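SUBJECT: A protein chain and its fold
Encoding: whole-number codes for local backbone shapes
Chain under study, with its fold:
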Amino acid sequence: MSVIGTRDRKSKERSGETRVYNIRRLRCDNCECIHHELPDFLVPYKRYESECIELVLSNPINHDIPADESTLYR
């Protein structure tokens, strides 16, 4: 894999604060596809951090995540 640049990625914390992370973009030397190097606390294609998602899945009735109910249902 070769590093070809970076991009910004937003995510929401448990407190409701939005953070911006600088994510490295990588190109595969074999297939030439672009991949993003995500840290463990970010979930691909999700806006909320993994801690928030785990809290809602483990306790769907009582949670303190600042999100709409329709978002939590999905």
Remarks:
- The chain has one domain: 2-73.
- Strands lie at 2-12, 18-27, 34-37.
- The first strand starts at residue 2 and ends at 12.
- DSSP finds two helices and three strands in the chain.
